[in-house]
Amino acid sequence: AAVLDWSSEALLDFVSQDEMLTPLGRLDKYISSENIFNRQMVARSLLDTLRAVSEDERDCVSVLEQIDRLADDSEPTVRAELMEQIPHIAIFCQENRPSIPFAFSKYLLPIVVRYLSDQNNLVRKTSQAALLVLLEQELMERGDVESLVCPVLVDLTAPDSSDDVKTEAMAIICKVAPMVGRDVTERLFLPRFCEMCCDCRMFHVRKVCAANFGDMCGVVGGEATEELLLPRFFQLCSDNVWGVRKACAECFMTVSSASSPDVRRTKLSSLFISLISDPSRWVRQAAFQSLGPFISTFASPSSNAGQFFRDEERSGAVCAQQEPAGREEQDEDRAAQTAESLTADDSQKCLPSSSEEIPEQELFNSFHFWRTPIPRIDPELELLEEDRRPSAPALDRKHLQELLENLEPHIDDPDVKAQVDVLTAALRATALDSGLEDAFLEPRAARSNPFSSQQPSEHLPADTQDVVPQALLEQYLSMTDPSRAQTVDMEIARHCAFSLPGVALTLGRQNWHCLRDTYETLASDMQWKVRRTLAFSIHELALILGDQLTAAHLVPIFNSFLKDLDEVRIGVLKHLYDFLKLLHQDTRRKYLYQLQEFLVTDNSRNWRFRSELAEQLVLLLELYSAQDVHDYLRPLALCLCTDRVSSVRWTSYRLVSEIIRKLSSCSSLLVSFLGELVEKFCHSQKWSGRQAFAFVCQLSIEEECLSLDQFSEHLLPPLLQLASDPVPNVRVLLAKTLRQTLLEREYFLSSVNCQQVALEHTLVALQTDVDKDVKYFASVHPGSTRLNEDAMSTTSSTY
Questions:
Q1: Which of 110, 325, 528, 794 is 20 to 30 Å apart from 183, CA to CA?
Q2: pLDDT in tens, 344-371
Q3: Distance (Å, whole) CA 243 – CA 249
Q4: C-alpha distances out from residue 195 to 198, 327, 340, 733, Å
Q5: What angle do CA 501, 581, 623 make, to 5 degrees?
Q6: Contacts by residues 643-650 (CB-CB < 8 Å, ≥ 24 positions apart)
Q7: Burial degree of 624 (CB within 10 A; 0-12, 13-18, 19+)
Q8: What CA–CA distance (Å, rounded) separates 147 from 187?
Q9: pLDDT at residue 313, rounded to an integer
C-alpha cells in the first residue's frame, strides 16, 4: 500500500510539473522523447502550441524551428502525422502573417517538397494530399510552385524512379496541372507526360496518363492537344492492357472538347468506333457509356449540349460504372506485370505471337481470348507504335474479309458479334489508310456488311443527318438492341436513356426522326430504371423539341409514365410544371383531371411523393385560371392539408395560402374558399385542423396573399375565436400569429380597423392564459423568432 501511495504521489507530481511548463517547454520536453507516441502527440499539438504563442514572434519562430526538427524524425508515423498538420498550420500562418512573415515558404514548404520523395509510402501519400490542399486553398506562391514543387514532381517520374513513386508522381502531376495553368504545364509537365504515355514497361503509369488525358488536354489547349497529345492518345487507345483502353474511353468527351471540329470528325470518330468494338467487354462498356457525351461535342458551342453530362447530381442519373472485378482484372495485372519484364520492343506486341508461347494453363485465359477461340485473329491487327504515331493495321482488306466470312456461321452467338465488331473496325481502318475516310464514316447500310452486329434498317431512318458521323449515331441507336445487354452491359439501355437529351440537342429538332424510334423503344423498356431515367428528363427533351413535336411524340409517352410505377412517376412529378408549361393551353387543361391520380401511390407510406405533389401544385397555379384552380387544385390542396405526415401538411399550408392569392382577383371564388377554410379547419373536431387554420392565416399575411381588409373581414374573426381552444398548442400558435405577424402591421393597430378592439381583448386573454408558453408568446416578441424558425416547434406532436 505504501508503494502504491508513493507511485500515485509521484505520478501526480509528474503531472503537476508538466502543467507548470510553458507551451514551448512542453514542446522541447517531448519532441526528443524516445516514446514514439509522445512524438506523435507533439506533431498533433503543434497548431495548438502556435496559437498559444501567436502574440510573440520569437516564440512562433521557435515553434516553426521545432517543426523543422520534427520533420527529420526517423519514425514514419511521426512524419506522416506532422504532414497531416501542415495544411492547418499553413492556414494559421496565412491568417497571422504580421506575426510570422514568410513562415510557410521558409519552414513548411521545404518539408512538403522533401516528403514527396520520402521512402515511406504513407508519408508520400500524406504529403501528396497535403500538397493538393495547399494548392486548392491558394496557400502557395505561384513562383514557389513553379520553382520548388514542379521540378521535384518531374524528377520523381524519371526512368530511375521506382515504379510506385513514378506512378504516384504522374497522378499528382495530372492533378496539379489544372491548378498551375497552361504555361507551367506546357513547359514543365507536358514533355514528361507525353513520355510517360509511351512507357513500355509500366502499364500503371500509362493507365494514370489515360485516366487524366482529358484534363491535360483541357489545360494545354487545342494546338498542343492536336500536335503533341493526340498521337499519344491514339497509342493509348490501342494499348495491350484493357484497363488503359478503358480509361481512354472514359475521358473521350473531354479530349474531344479540346480538339478542333475537323479532328473530332475525321480522326476521333474512327478512333472511338474502335473502342466500341474492343475485344474487352469492360472497354466496350465504358465506350458505350461515353458515346452520348462524345456525340454531344459535335453540337454548336452555343447549344451547351454538354450540360446534360456534367450535371452528375441530376435526379435519375445513371449509376457510376462499376469497376470490373474478378478474373479479367486479375488477368490484366498478371499479364501487364509479365509485359513489364519484356524489352521495350517486345512489350509493344499486344499478344504473344503463337499459342505455344502461352503456358498451358493460360491457353484459354480471358486476357488472351474473351471466348473459346474460333478462327484466330493475327496479333498484328493491333496498331503498332511507329514514330510515336499509330500506323495502319498490318493485315490487308482481303485477309480481314476472309476472317469475317469464317465467322458468318456463328453470327447468332453474341460473343461472335462482338468479335465481328473488332474485325469490322480493323477493316474500316484499312479504308482510312487508303484514303477512303468518307467510306469509313458513311452509314453501314452503304457498305452492306452482311456480318454487322447491327441491322441498320432497324435503327436508321430513311433520311439521315449530317451533324455527327453517321457511324457514331448508328452505334448510339444500337444501344437498345437486346444483344448489347448480353455482350456489353446490362445497364446499356439506361446509359442510352441518360444521354438522349444531349444527343437530341446536338442533332437538333430537325433530326428528331433519327431518335424517335429509339426513344419509344426506351420508353417501353422492361427495366423500370430505364423508364425512370426518361421520366426525369422528358421536360428537357420537350424544351429541345418544341411544342409541336412534344405534343405529337412526347405527350403519349408522358401519359404512359403517369400510369407507371411510383419510381417512374416521381420523375414526371418532380418536373410536372416544367413539362406542362411547354404545352398548349388546351392540352394542358386535360391534365387537370389526372392530377388527383398522384394522390394514389403503390406504397401509402411514400409521403415524399405527396410532398412533391404539393410543391408542384404551388408552381402549377400560374398555368391555370382562377376558376380551374378553384375547381381542380383546391380539392387536392385541402386533401393534402389533412395528410398524416406533418412535412406534407406544412407544404400544403403554403399551397393553400398561394391558392388564396390566386383567387383574390375573383371575389366570389375567394369568399367561397375562405368560408370553406373556416368550416373545414377552424371548426374542425381535430386540434391539428384548427392549428392548420392558424398557420394558413399567418402565411397569408406574411406572404401578402390577400388584402388586409379581406383578411380582417373573413379570416380574423374566426381566428380570434381560437383563443378559447382547449389545446395549448393551438393557442400558442395563435399568440405567435397575433404578436409576431398581425401586430407588426400598422393596419391592425389603427382604430380604423373594426376588429381592433376584439384583437386587443384576445391578446389580453392570452397574456393571462394558464399555459406559460401561451402567456410568453402573447406577452413578448422575441426578435429572432419568425414563422420558419419557431412555428414548427409546436408541431412536434402532430406527426
A1: 110
A2: 333 333 333 333 333 333 333 433 333 3
A3: 10
A4: 6, 31, 16, 72
A5: 165
A6: 643/607, 643/610, 644/607, 645/607, 645/610, 645/611, 645/799, 646/792, 646/795, 646/798, 646/799, 647/607, 647/611, 648/607, 648/610, 648/611, 648/614, 649/688, 649/692, 649/798, 650/695, 650/792, 650/795
A7: buried
A8: 12
A9: 36
Query: Are the CB atoms for 794 and 691 separated by under 8 Å?
Result: yes
The mean pLDDT value for 247-275 works out to 93
Question: Could you give the CA distance from residue 110 to residue 412 in angstroms, rounded to a whole number?
Answer: 64
Chain position carrying cell 398555368: 623
Length of the chain: 799
Which residues contact residue 367 at a Cβ distance below 8 angstroms, ignoring those fewer than 6 apart?
A: 242, 328, 331, 332, 334, 335
Is residue 688 within 8 Å of 798, Cβ to Cβ? Answer: yes
Report the predicted TM-score, pTM, of the whole model to 2 decimal places: 0.72
SS3 assignment for 532-547: HHHHHHHHHHHHHHHH
Q: In which element (H, E) is residue 76 found?
A: helix 76-95
The closest of 446, 441, 467, 468 to 456, measured between CA atoms, is 446
State residue 389 phi and psi, 5-degree precision. -130, 145
Which residues, at least 6 apart from 407, have a Cβ–Cβ distance to it below 8 Å?
Answer: 374, 375, 416, 419, 420, 423, 451
Do residues 199 and 342 lie in contact, with contact meaning Cβ atoms separated by under 8 Å?
no
Q: Which alpha helices (H) appear in 683-784, and where do they start and end?
A: 687-702, 708-714, 716-720, 728-736, 756-767, 772-779
Q: Are 201 and 347 in contact (CB under 8 A)?
A: yes
Task: Return the C-alpha torsion angle 157, 163, 165, 171, nearest 10.
Answer: 70
Calpha distance 36→30 (Å, rounded): 10
Asked if residue 739 lies in contact with residue 696, where contact means CB atoms within 8 angstroms, the answer is no
Distance CA 234, CA 268 (A): 9
Q: Each residue of 117-144: pLDDT tens digit?
A: 888 999 999 998 998 898 888 888 888 8
Q: Note the pLDDT tens digit of each residue in 444-497.
A: 333 333 333 334 434 444 477 889 999 999 999 999 998 888 888 889 999 999
**Which helix or strand (DSSP H or E) is residue 386 part of?**
strand 385-386
Sign of CA dihedral 337, 343, 347, 353: negative
For residues 689 and 671, give the distance between their C-alpha atoms in angstroms, rounded to a whole number: 20
Closest CA to 775 of 717, 743, 740, 728: 728
Spell out the residues 6+ positions from residue 157 whose beta carbon is closer than 8 angstroms to its own. 166, 169, 170, 173, 192, 196, 205
Q: Is 206 helix (H, G, I), strand (E, B) or coil?
A: helix
Query: Which residues, including other chains, have CB under 8 Å from residue 315's CB and lie 6 or more apart?
Result: 536, 571, 574
Taking the C-alpha atoms of residue 266 and residue 587, their distance in angstroms, rounded to an integer, is 45
Check: CB of residue 219 under 8 Å from CB of residue 182.
yes
Q: Tell me the three state secondary structure of residue 405.
A: helix
- Rounded CA-CA distance 338/177 in Å is 32
Question: Do residues 202 and 193 lie in contact, with contact meaning Cβ atoms separated by under 8 Å?
Answer: no
State the cell numbers at 796.
412536434
